[in-house]
Amino acid sequence: MRTSRSQPPRIDAGLFFLRLTGCLLLLYVHGLPKVFHFSEELTRIEDPFGLGPYMSLLPAIFAEVVCPVFILAGVFARLACLPIIGVLLVAMLVVHPGWSLAEGQFGWLLLIIFTTLAITGPGRWRLGSARHNEVRYGAS
């Protein structure tokens, strides 16, 4: 039975695809290299606020490794998008303000993906959603 709050399955499929592809791209291109090459990254990371490389790298790792795992699972997805959005905005507006749109297109596309997910939420295809729907609609 469809309620006024339900949406077509293709919307949930689209949100899942957006979560999956956005998170895997962020993890593969940015997050995991920072973890696997931590010492090397400490020598290369920009320090836009003068906090030191360690205090610049840790928030980036949190946003690019921990948060995507939550988003992939659909758990606290909207909240987990916020650190990613913050790191991307710092990268695009503070660290690389002179980049052309072509040079920064990957960052801007990631920003679009995670801002969209922050607005929409993860959809129904997420961990714990079946149990949540049982409680909400009284199914047994």
UniProtKB/TrEMBL annotation:
Keywords attached to this entry: Cell membrane, Membrane, Transmembrane, Transmembrane helix
Pfam families: DoxX (PF07681)
Alphabetized InterPro entries for the sequence: DoxX, DoxX-like_oxidoreductase
Compartment annotation: Cell membrane
UniProt keyword annotation of Magnesium present: no
Ranges that cross the membrane: 12-31, 51-72, 79-99, 105-123
One GO CC term, this protein: plasma membrane
The keyword Transport is assigned to this record: no
Membrane topology classification: Multi-pass membrane protein
Main location: membrane
PANTHER family, alphabetized: INNER MEMBRANE PROTEIN YPHA-RELATED (PTHR33452:SF1), OXIDOREDUCTASE CATD-RELATED (PTHR33452)
Similarity section: Belongs to the DoxX family.
Protein name as annotated: LysR family transcriptional regulator
Origin species: Chimaeribacter coloradensis
Source organism phylogeny: Bacteria, Pseudomonadati, Pseudomonadota, Gammaproteobacteria, Enterobacterales
